[in-house]
Input
Amino acid sequence: MDKTSAMPRLRNSSLCLIIAALAASCAPDSPSSSGRDVWGHRPGPKGFRTVILDAGHGGKDSGAVSPHTGQREKDLTLDMAMRIRDELGSGFRTILMRNDDTFIDLDERVIRANRFGDAVLVSMHFNSGPSSIRGPETYFWRVDSHGLAVRCQQAMNAVSPAESGNRGLVRRRLRLTRNPEIPCILLEGGYLSHPAESRLVADPSYRQRLASAIASAIRTQSDAGDAGTGSLPRPLYEPPSRPTDAPE
Ligand SMILES: [Zn+2]
Output
């Protein structure tokens, strides 16, 4: 029912504005009719069966390029998305954000992800930075994405050799960790700028182990929800991320 139809007609337009402002300011605290909090302040998902795999970059956007192997991030992320899809198998419906070398704008990726209600979004990337830094990292922002982020970071750590200087789990407001209306995380599978890690990532058997570990983490999240992933992070009220936010 349209709530406004039950209200007496108000002649004072400024009063209407005040009521509208109050309603808007209250909105983040109250779950919508679908039970979802638009800010993602709810426990992580359990029992989901749809996984959106987002291969970072693509087309004109190569992402990072390894100075050691010449490999491009956009090719490695697509390779990983396909490996994770295969590892998840028939128990999940998997959606590939892209399945070829196509450029898709970040905001368009958010729009596409929001077409699926009961799903999680996993965006795959590889990192670049000072040549001494190595190791996988996982970015999340929403409370409902914390458990999946913890599981995926632990899974990648278990496959990766001893890390050095990496930040592990990072809470950061990126367009793909804040703007989708579903739990969403961004994985950095390793540093292409690190000589040894770049060569490791170039090995298909290493990428397969990484993909297998990530798929198991997703499966465990669906089976167990947040159980065993620690206490939920504090809620944060921030508007949607902007293109000028931290680089993605
Ligand atoms: Zn990237």
Summary: The two ends are 41 Å apart (CA to CA).
